Amino acid sequence: MALIDVVKFDGLKNRDWLIFKYPSEDLVFGTQVVVQEGQVAIFVKGGLTADVFYPGTYTLSTQNLPLLKSIVNLPFGGATPFQAEIYYINTAVKMDINWGTTDPIQLIDPKYYVKLRIRAFGQMGLKIGDVVVLFKELIGGMQKNELVRFDKIREYYRGILVIKTKSAIADAIITNQISALEISIKLESLSEQVKEKIVPEFERYGFSVANFFIQSINFPDEDFEKINKILEDKAAFEIMGDGRYATKRSLDVYEGAATNQSGVAGAFMAGGVGLGAALGAGAAMSQTVGNPLHNEETKECVSCKARISVRSKFCPECGYNNSERVCECGNKLMPGTKFCPECGKKVEG
Question: What are the tens digits of pLDDT across the range 43-98?
C-alpha cells in the first residue's frame, strides 16, 4: 500500500466547512500530521474515537498516539504501517448561519383582532465545543474525502430553531399581549429567550452557540392592509366624533351601492335597505352637520351598539329599526323584542 508522508488539510477560503474526512487511511509511524489554526484532527479506529490533535505539527509515534496504540496493539519502534481514519474538524466560530421559519405562525393580533401569518428570520453563530461528542453524534458513516458544510448542520437543526422561535413569538403575542406591529422593539429579549432554549439542544451534539439573533418578524402585505384599514377608521373616528363617523360609514355604503350596475334602487333593495331609509340617512347627515350628535341626547343602537340620536328610527351605522313599539296589550316594548314580556304575545314585524 502507498504510505502517506504528510497529512494536511488546508481548509476552504470561505471557512464554510465543518468536517473533512482525509481520503487515505494508510499511515506509518513517522508520518507528519499538520493541524492548522482553527482545526482539530481526530483519529478513529473501528468506529472508536482515539487520539485528538490540536493546532501544530506532529510526527506520529507511539508517544502521541497512546489511545490508538492500545486499540490496535501497535508495536514499538520502526516505520510500522497501520490504518486509521483521520477527520479534520473546523473549530473556528461560524458567525453567519442564516435561518428562517419555513411555515408562517398563524396568530390573532391581540390589539387589532386580525389573523396574521407571521414569519421570522435571523442569524446565529456556532462553534464546535466538544469534538468527541460531535463525532459520536454526527460523524459516523462519512465517506472518504467527504466534506460536511455548515449548511448541512443548519438543515439538521432547522426543526429545533423553528419550534423554539415560534414558541417564543407566540408567547409574546398571546400571553404578553404584544401586537405584531410593536414586537420589533422586543427582538433583543426574544432572541435571548430563544437562545436559552436552543443552547442545551446544541450542546448535546457538541456545539456551542456563540450568538443567536432574530433580525426580523414580518407578515404579508395583505395582512398589514387589514390593520392599516383599522388604523384609518380609528383616526377618522377620533377626528370626526362618534355620531359623524357612524353616519359617514352609512353613507359610504349607500354611495358604493349607487355605483353598482343594477342602479340605485336595485342596489338598496338587494342590500335590504329601502330608498326611503337612504334618503332618511341623508337627512340625518344634514342635521348632524348642523347639530353634531355629541351635542344631542343619544341612545345606543340595539343591534350594533353605535351611539345614535334619540330621534333616529333607523341606525345610520347598520340600518336596524330602533323605533319604540307598543304591544296590543298597551305595554311599551324595547326595540328588538320578539315577545311581549307582559302578555307573552309574539311581536309582529
Answer: 988 878 889 999 999 998 878 888 887 777 666 555 678 888 899 999 988 888 88
Contacts 24+ apart (CB under 8 A), 137-146: 137/204, 137/205, 137/206, 138/19, 138/205, 138/206, 139/19, 139/87, 140/47, 142/19, 142/21, 142/87, 143/21, 144/21, 144/22, 144/23, 144/24, 144/25, 145/21, 145/22, 145/23, 146/20, 146/21
CA dist 140 and 47 (Å) reads: 7
The CB-side HSE value for 297 (13 A sphere, CA atoms) comes to: 2
Cα separation, 24 vs 31, whole angstroms: 13
Q: Give the span between the Cα atoms of 187 and 123, in whole angstroms.
A: 12
Rounded to two decimals, the pTM is 0.58
pLDDT in tens, 134-144: 877 776 555 55
Comparing CA positions, the residue from 54, 14, 16 lying closest to residue 34 is 54
Alpha-carbon 231 to chain mean position: 23
**CB neighbourhood size of 48 (10 A):** 12
- Lowest mean pLDDT across 41-50, 212-221, 271-280: 271-280
